[in-house]
Amino acid sequence: MGEAIVITSGKGGVGKTTTTANLGTALALQEKKVCLIDTDIGLRNLDVVMGLENRIIYDLVDVVEGRCKTHQALVKDKRFNDLLYLLPAAQTTDKSAVTPEQMKKLIEELKQDYDYILIDCPAGIEQGYKNAVAGADHAIVVTTPEKSAVRDADRVIGLLEKEEGMAPPKLVVNRIRSHMVREGDMLDVDEVASHLSIELIGIVADDDEVIKSSHNGEPVAHNPNNQASIAYRNIARRILGESVPLQQPDQQQETIFTKFKRFIGISR
Amino acid sequence: MKTGQNVVIKGTKDGLTLQLNDKCAYNELIEELVEKLDTVTNDGQDALITVTVQTGNRYVTEEDKEVLKNVIRKRQHLVVEDIKSNVITLDEAVRWKEEEEIVSYAGRIRSGQVLEVPGNLLLVGDVNPGGTIKAGGSIYVMGALKGVAHAGCYGNDRAVIAAAKMMPTQLRISNHLTRSPDRYDEEEITESECAFINEADQLVIDRLQVLKYLRPDISTFKGGF
């Protein structure tokens, strides 16, 4: 019996889809069987980030309306040997094409075959959000260290806490720019975490490589040397129950060179 | 048919007191009241006499009160000051209790959430920006108040808002409103503060200690220590 985790944020553009793609990849790298569901019906893009767009035959709406079997709509990620699948959203209709009850039933069915089901939630708190949250056992709230994103995350956490049968949500702070935090131009991770007062499960630095990799349709988590990739892999390990200490991005970046610079006093 | 007097009229230095029997039928009572009032002769005085009505253990509805007042007002020199009864309905009692009591809630009020109580509110936790707390009476926050607080929201100017860390986006008391400065320095706020409406009818924020003198009725503790 698998676990269903919804990845949500309230505000758009904070990195829900990127986080879903990378956590799915990182969990599959840990030999877990993972299914990603894109619930952003009408504005799907998880398939693009995963580089699986050209293999879509059926979609989520086809499945819930019975036009195909569930396994027919699942798109296999060829980079893994039978571990990572994607259930894409429909592009031609809208959020009202699916109901929360249908989502619940679908996720129950998928839980039989998969260890983890990651649900990519659309922005907002309307129908699409309700669909995405309906079948989930756990929730991960993604936010960036900006006031607007934190405000929306706060709202969503309030809604998630009211959901029945849902474990307390966990927090991922995404796209941190350590130099701006140091200058005091951006909220730091501790401020965000204490404001939202839920368990922090990951800190991801803002990295050009993340944008580049979604441009190329290959999640950054495949790259073993990138700081954002390591952050995503660490979140995956924490989901699996390992205790991995949280690292601030500037600690992650620390190389022998910066250590030396700090030692001779030209860098903080 | 009548067994004894249903209406007793007493004169005091503040005017007349009408004691109404609470055992007899209501229409009988009204009849006798009209009769009795008609026998009271106006001694040619033009001065108005105030009347207090005591209905004892009889519950008097708003409609019945109007009837009573009309009967008495017909005598031109009589004015009804008050109608007193020993009984209130369960609904009224519940409302009274709700308005008086302090409701406590432990937790965080997040953006978009609204916590409303009819009486006084004690919040053990923070109010995040975008969150709202409302109370018919006063509000006490044992945490950081960063959202909106509305005390005395049904029109009570005596209500106050107290918070351990007062950094609200907006404060409202009754129909008064104040907004925050555009920027807070969190380190600067070290002291508990309270908000109230002052003599000049303005909503102001001051040290918590002034409440003791401005709103002594906040203390419900009786006796000494």
TrEMBL record, chain A:
Keyword Cell division: yes
Domain AAA: 3-157
Binding site for ATP: 11-18
GO cellular component: cytoplasmic side of plasma membrane; cytosol
Keywords assigned: ATP-binding, Cell cycle, Cell division, Nucleotide-binding, Septation
KW Nucleotide-binding (keyword) present: yes
CDD domains: MinD
Pfam assignment, any one: AAA_31
GO molecular function, one term: ATP binding
Any single biological process term in GO: negative regulation of cell division
Protein family: Belongs to the ParA family. MinD subfamily.
Function description: ATPase required for the correct placement of the division site. Cell division inhibitors MinC and MinD act in concert to form an inhibitor capable of blocking formation of the polar Z ring septums. Rapidly oscillates between the poles of the cell to destabilize FtsZ filaments that have formed before they mature into polar Z rings.
NCBIfam families, per database record: minD_bact
Protein name: Septum site-determining protein MinD
The species this protein was found in: Domibacillus aminovorans
Classification of source organism: Bacteria, Bacillati, Bacillota, Bacilli, Bacillales
From TrEMBL, chain B:
Domain (Septum formation inhibitor MinC C-terminal) ranges: 106-205
Highest taxon, organism lineage: Bacteria
A Pfam family of this chain: MinC_N_1
Keyword Chloroplast belongs to the record: no
Keywords: Cell cycle, Cell division, Septation
NCBIfam families with a match to the protein in the record: minC (TIGR01222)
Protein task: Cell division inhibitor that blocks the formation of polar Z ring septums. Rapidly oscillates between the poles of the cell to destabilize FtsZ filaments that have formed before they mature into polar Z rings. Prevents FtsZ polymerization.
Family: Belongs to the MinC family.
Name this polypeptide is given: Probable septum site-determining protein MinC
Native organism: Domibacillus aminovorans
Gene name tied to this protein: minC
